[in-house]
Structures are given as structure tokens and as C-alpha cells.
Amino acid sequence: MAASVRLLVRRLARLSHKNITSSAATVSCRPGCCLGPSSSRCISDTAEDRSTHFGFEKVPEAEKAKRVYKVFENVAQKYDVMNDAMSLGVHRLWKDMLLHVMHPQPGARLLDVAGGTGDISFRFLDYILYQQERRKRRAAASSQTPSWQDISDKYPTEDRPQESRAVVCDINKEMLKVGKQRADSMGITSGLSWVVGDAEELPFDDDQFDIYTIAFGIRNVTHIDQTLQEALRVLKPGGRFMCLEFSKVTNPVLAKLYDVYSFQVIPVLGEVIAGDWKSYQYLVESIRKFPDQEEFKGMIEDTGFFCVQYFNFTGSILHQVFLQ
Amino acid sequence: MWQCLSNPFIRLNQTQSYLTSKWFKALLVHRLFTSGAELTYSYDGLYPGHIQTTSFQKALLAVGSGVAALQDPYRHDMVAVLGETTGHLALINLRERMKNDPEGYTILTERPRIRLSTLDLEKMASLPDESFGREYLRFLEENKVTPDSRAEVKFVDNEELAYIMLRYREVHDLLHTLLGMPTNMLGEVAVKWFEAAQTGLPMCALGAVLGPLRLNASRLQSLFTSLGPWALQNGRRARCVLSIFYERRWEQSLEDLRRELNIEPPPLTLSASNKRRRQI
């Protein structure tokens, strides 16, 4: 029942957001911020001089990972509460949309990078479970009184949930800790693993996963291209790379409102709810520094993915990619 | 436009006015700060820990921190933020009072801090009973508090006023000793009434009004009949408590200090064992 309500909500959200699609070339982005990561990728200076952006601040590359770690260590306990407060709950719809586009089948293996508190993985497992139950209901509805033979044939399918595995990978132990607590309180016992790892250097072999997701994590990495290459490596041929991330808002009125909201309200919320102004200041600044839709699409294509598409939802975008 | 800018004098003036304009300063500071406190290079803003905010943000912070502090009175950081965002006029008033007092003026110039690192605990423990230093130490031990637990000032946009706010927070514990109040809810409310009468800080006034809502009937009675009026009267007539250089008065006897500040001893003796576990 919950899933059908979600479906309805999804349809409504889709309808209302249909108009906010970005036009290909002429995006009026703020000067300089699109060039952020590309300037840090340009290897013209030595390793010590290479700097990147930490919000609006310039820091040496080696620093950034440490500072991002500190930010998420501080906010881990209140991360979910803050997400709800900042996006007024809309982030749940975005994540549901991601799953809907993903449409995973039972047996799929998911790698949720920067998965932190596990939102995507929990939804993945729920979705798979729902699919299985639907199949079972259909099978039960179609067959009348099954023979004992039929019933016993169905028994092995009971442990199908274990075939679909979700691996939550995050560089930050605090976030994983919070995620594990949530999993325990939700009663999820199987199908989920928690791994500490760096998105730029994943601790997995090649060709392991069907789906790779990174939700609101890719703007925090130091080298986006390395992350994309790792994604290509661990995905099976035909696997999908799916990324949910904030991006440029194309509507100028909405963009202004969004700016005011981001810089005026979000750090205040961070201070009042989480007691941490600076981490949320970093968050809104890092959104501004991330490349826009087309540039990011170019980066993904350069890495070697095919069929790159993106969808815009209220200024945040969803990239879906096929690898062949 | 280009001709205008090519004239060096006009350009200089424009640059100067641009640089000194509040907007640019705000933008500069806004763009500069994000450094964590653990990094050793120079801080951004007017003092370490300063976060530049617009009036809109201050208003939001005041409302938000007020709600958060009401929901959970143990969130001292929210009480602190409420004080900072609403206390501008009161802080200016306090600064005037301190400047007009010779000892207060010394404090503003020397900027002493009350922290465990600056206190000589052994020396204070060796002082005789009834001396201010010894009683303060006893207060810290009995109520299990430390002077280092005060939140730093973040949202006051003037360096001197920020120091006065900090001094107010650090003196709060000393006030407990001077007034003889423990850190349970009743004691805190009594001290808030005193501080509201003394400093006029809106946060103190709010705390004074809303604090009693969390007291039970018997404590309310003792508050309204004896403690409250005593706190208010003494708050009004006492010398400005921020103007006292406490760090040089550890050896002074408590009675003597009270007389000097024009504070009567408390009408009721409350003990620290009245402190209830975190409740409501």
C-alpha cells in the first residue's frame, strides 16, 4: 500500500517538475564555478601546488578529504533530521525517483557509494522485496489449488532476498555507524553490507556490481574523474551508474530564491538543529562549485559510459547512465 | 564608464568606497570563512569563532534558538545563540557601565579570561573557608561544573561586545557563588532573575519568565515569596557584576565581597543535592 501511494506521489511530482528541464547549451551559470574541478584536474602544476575548492575556499588537495571527513563526522548524528528540515522532506521524493528510474530486479547487486546513512540501500531492498511479493501474489492468484509438488518448488524462492545484495560504502565511519543503527532499528538482517572505502579507490574487484549509485556524494570527492573511473571499473558490462546530485537551477527566478534560501536559511538551520553552522555553509558552497548538468554529462561520457541521460527535479538532477 | 575608471583618482576613490562598503566586507568575510577551529592559520571575521550574519539570519537564529532552547533547556548552545542575537542593545549598555567604572575599564583593556588553565586551583584550595576563591572551588566541585564549558561567542558583530558577552558567561558561575545558588532549576532561575535585573539582556528576561514554568509548586512558592524578590532587588541595586576583577579577589572573604557589591546573602539556603536528574 505504501508503494502504491509512493507511485502516485511520484507521478504527481513528475508532472509538476516536467517543465523544469534544462536547455542544452545556454545555461546562465555563475562564472568561475563551473571551472572549479577542471582546473584542479589540469596537471600543469606540481603535486604540492595542486589546490582544489572546499566550498568557496581554496585548499590543497590533500586537505580537502580531511576537511570533508570532519564535516560529516560532525553532522552524522543529525544528518537525516537536517535533510528533512532543509529540503522539507522533498529529498525522500528524489530518492524514490532514483529507485523508480533504477527499477532493480531481484538478483541485482547494488553498490551505494557515499551511502552513509543508507537511504538508497534501504529503498533498494524495499523495492526488491516489493517486486518479489508482487510476483508471488501474481503466481498465487494465477494458480488455483497448487499440488504439493508446486508448493515445495516454491520453497527455495523464499531465500531469494539474499541474492539481491546492497553494499553501502562510505569513507566516513560515523555515517556508517548511524546507518547501521537505522538498519538495526528497521529490522533488516540480510542483504546489506557496510564497507568503509574511498570512492576514488574502491576496495572491490572489477566487474562486481550491476548498479552503482552515488547520492549527494560526488560533489564531496576531491577527484571526480577518478571516482567515475572507479565506478566504471567495478561495474559489470551492461551495469548502470546512477548519480543523484544538486546542480544548476535554470529558471532565474527560482535560482535567486534558491540562493537566498541556501545562504540565509540553511546555515541557520544547521546551527539550530545540529549546532554546526560551518558544515552547512560548506554544504551550500560545495553545491555552487559543482559542475553543471552538461559539463558533468561530458565528464561521464569521457570516462567511457554510454547512453548518458539526466533528469532535472527542482534543481537537483539525476544522471542515469548505461554502460555497454 | 571606461574613461571614468581610467582616471586614477576616481578609481582610487571608487575602490576605497567599494572596499569599505559594508556589503563588500560582508561578502569578503562571507567568502573567506569556512576554516575549522583546529587549523592554526589566522581566523576569519572580527575575532576567533566569529560568523558574519545578516539581520535576517540573526532574526531566524533568534527565533530558532528560542524554540530549541524551550524544547530542551539543556541545550546551552541555543541559549547562548539566543543571547547573542538579541542582546545588542543590552551589551552596549553594559559596555558604557563598564567604561564608567575604573575596575570595569581595566577589565576591558586587560581582557582576563576565567578558564581552568588560568586558575591556580591548588592555591585556591589552600585559601581559608569563606574566602571567595575557596567558595568558588567548592561550588565547582559540588555542582560538578567546570568554567571551560561555556560556548564561544559567534554572532556578535563587534569585537569588544563579543568580549563582554564572553565575560558575562564566565561570570555566571561566579554569580552562583556570590548568590549562593546551586545549579538546579530553582537556583538557575533565581540567578536569571538577578541577571535580568542587572544586565537587561533579553535572553535573561526570557529565561526568567519561562524558567518558572518548569518548576513544581513548592519551588514556585519559594521563588515567588522569597528568592525572587530578593534576586530582583539585589539585581537592581548591586554594582555591575561584570566590572569586578574577580581574578584578583580570590583571597577576599565572601561576605566582604558581597557587601562591596551591595548584595545581601540569600534568604534560603539551597543545597546542590536538590539537583534533579535531567527531567521534563
UniProtKB/TrEMBL annotation, chain A:
Pathway: Cofactor biosynthesis; ubiquinone biosynthesis. PROSITE patterns: PROKAR_LIPOPROTEIN, SAM_MT_UBIE, UBIE_1, UBIE_2. S-adenosyl-L-methionine binds at residues 117, 170, 198-199. GO terms for cellular component: extrinsic component of mitochondrial inner membrane. It comes from the Eukaryota. One of its GO terms (molecular function) is 2-methoxy-6-polyprenyl-1,4-benzoquinol methyltransferase activity. Component of a multi-subunit COQ enzyme complex, composed of at least COQ3, COQ4, COQ5, COQ6, COQ7 and COQ9. Interacts with PYURF; the interaction is direct, stabilizes COQ5 protein and associates PYURF with COQ enzyme complex. Belongs to the class I-like SAM-binding methyltransferase superfamily. MenG/UbiE family. This is 2-methoxy-6-polyprenyl-1,4-benzoquinol methylase, mitochondrial. It comes from Xiphophorus maculatus.
TrEMBL record, chain B:
It is an enzyme of class 4 (lyase). It comes from the Eukaryota. Its EC number is 4.1.1.130. It is a peripheral membrane protein. It is found in: Mitochondrion inner membrane. Keywords: Lyase, Membrane, Metal-binding, Mitochondrion, Mitochondrion inner membrane, Ubiquinone biosynthesis, Zinc. Pathway: Cofactor biosynthesis; ubiquinone biosynthesis. Pfam families: Coq4 (PF05019). Zn(2+) binds at residues 172-173, 176, 188. One of its GO terms (cellular component) is extrinsic component of mitochondrial inner membrane. Belongs to the COQ4 family. This is Ubiquinone biosynthesis protein COQ4 homolog, mitochondrial. It comes from Xiphophorus maculatus. The gene is COQ4.
